[in-house]
Amino acid sequence: MTLDLTDVPGYAEAIRTKKIIAASDARTDPSTKEFKDSYLVPLDIHSMLDVTFFRDGQLDGLICCEQQGAPRVWKSEDIIFVSSVADIISLAYRSVQRREYEKKLKLQSKEIARMNEMLEQRVKERTEELEDRNNQLTEYAFINSHLLRSPVSKILGLINLMEVDKTSDPQQMMDHLKQSCAELDTVVKKITIALDGGEQLDRNTFRKQ
Description:
Among the domains are: 5-74, GAF domain (Beta-Lactamase, 2-Layer Sandwich), CATH 3.30.450; 136-206, Helix Hairpins (Orthogonal Bundle). By secondary structure, the protein is an alpha+beta fold. 62% of the residues lie in helices and 12% in strands. It has helices spanning 9-17, 36-40, 76-164, 170-196, and strands at residues 20-23, 45-55, 58-68. The longest helix has 89 residues, at 76-164. The protein contains four helices and three strands. A three-stranded antiparallel beta sheet has the order 1-2-3, with helices on both faces. Helix 3 runs antiparallel to helix 4 (170-196).
């Protein structure tokens, strides 16, 4: 049977404020008389002994002992025994609660450890990516400043010399110009081949035969 505490406000208040309700005559006791017509008389219950237990300051449940057939005066031994059982139940609930909390903590610790491992791996991968990009930028800077600019500078210098020095041998100047253009063409071709092939571009690319 399920009892709705909203139908018995006096009893609801009693179990919230008292640990023990020892009603020898439950049908007249102020804490239990609200059950008379709906519960006590139909089931021939004359006496009730209720002991509550709390968890974290909140009412968590109660043990209800009932005497049928005739009234019963609850003895001290009865009250002590039922109170002890209520304390044991309360401890059992706390033990379960503590184990569940410890289980959650272990799961959270494992999840945190897993996330830390993932983060460390990601940081490692990201660091390697940045180092690789830095190396590539270094190589690009070297290629630009040495391998590309050198033949370009020669070409520009020869053109400038041809413009200002009318006494220079045109054929000789043209040969130097062709040589510089060939050097530039070789560098550009190697860059194009490396990029098209998905290779990492570095100065070793230009040392290959």
